[in-house]
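Reproducibility note. Readers wishing to regenerate the assembly model reported in the main text can use the exact inputs given here. Chain order matters: entities are listed in the order in which they were concatenated for prediction.
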Amino acid sequence: MSPAEFLQNAQDFLPILLQGAWVTIQITVLSFLLSSAIGLVLALLKLSPIRALSWTASTIINVIRGLPIIVQLFYIYFVLPDMGVHLTAFYAGVIGMGIAYSAYQAENFRTGIIAVEQGQREAAEALGMRSALMMRRVILPQAFRIALPPYGNTLVMMLKDSSLVSTITVAEMTRQGQLIASSTFQNMTVYTLVALLYLLMSLPLVYGLRRMEQHLSRRKKA
Amino acid sequence: MIEIRQLQKHYGSHRVLHGVDLDVAKGEVVCLIGPSGSGKSTLLRCINALEAYDGGVITVFGETVQRGSKTVHALRSRMGMVFQRFNLFPHRTVLENVMEGPLYVKGEPPQQVREEALVLLEKVGLSAKADAYPEQLSGGQQQRVAIARALAMKPDAMLFDEPTSALDPELVGDVLAVMRTLADEGMTMIVVTHEMGFAREVADRVCFLHGGYIVESGPAEEVLGNPQHARTQDFLRRVLHPTGNTRSLS
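Running the prediction on these inputs yields the following structure tokens for the assembly.
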């Protein structure tokens, strides 16, 4: 295939793939937010001094980690309707990815919370803070900084793994690529473009996250 | 104001406090001295319930103190605490550190809190550092901010846990000067310290702890100038003459 042909095909395929890329971004951002919220709740429950709560959280985290993401997606998209819960493919994808990754987010947050110095808790307690206020004002802001590198990693992984929702018919970028490839047989052009577009999204993200980490650690040392 | 009766505390089988009695009246400055492991920091930390205790009773402002009790948050907000390692909030500026308590624990109006915080920073000599972050400050400056942060709650008593032990020697003076001012203003203070000069000049009373007991207690000039107990004498000899006296090391 000549470069001219490649460019001609690329011109035809790109608008469709870009539509898919937009869906990929939406899925990634929404499921990242959802996984952060569920992950934070799971982390706080797991750290709870109440045995029943920490045990429940641990069990949920282990079950989620023990299941393939695709199986979780299939379950939400194909099985839940049998129980009367109907979701569009898009929201099934967001919820599935959000739950699947919440287990990893919980570990990110838990590690960060544990790493905050004991003296910080004591200083907050000595001011008369109750535990909710102490979490919000003292512990979590510092835990977030500590957890930022693994947290950012998770975001990059979710961007790439959002391609898994193509298996439940969500028209994100990988799915769009598959559809074009199967109707045009231009596998090389299509998947090269798909790969380049993923890199175009992931590399700036990796770079931006590194800058953010450097900025925070510089502030800490200054 | 603060009453401690037969306070006992142990970690597993290791007994840290063996029935300590201590009364601190309003406006009184009490220094707790003694070798490391004598229980003086533990005693202080029990008073604002950073540690639970196993026997006896602590009463502060007429209410019983115990870790986990419902009134503990209210009691703590009336007692300032200053730590050996400062424990400033590293993600907030100096001014924000001082404002944190009154603003979020007491819910006072931001403008008033801000003005009062600036007055406190002025008092500890750090107005110029209001917008700096703690890591940009020396240890002595951080400790003075920590004192301002505690004072911002308008406490009825202040607890100091070895406030100068983590400081370079040349920075100790500024912190002690702030504490001396507080004492002169009539603040009720309990100070765990190794600064014998400060104890002698500022304390109304000095308690010497050893092995979980208050071995000797009385006016500063008596305990420090004419100690009765052999352990006190030995401790003071070591602290005041850290080099040269080999006999006391045996």
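We highlight two features of this model. Chain A touches chain B at residues 117, 119-120, 122-123, 125-130, 133, 137-138, 141-142, 145, 219-222 (CB under 8 Å). Helices of chain A lie at 3-46, 51-66, 69-79, 89-115, 118-126, 131-161, 173-184, 187-221.
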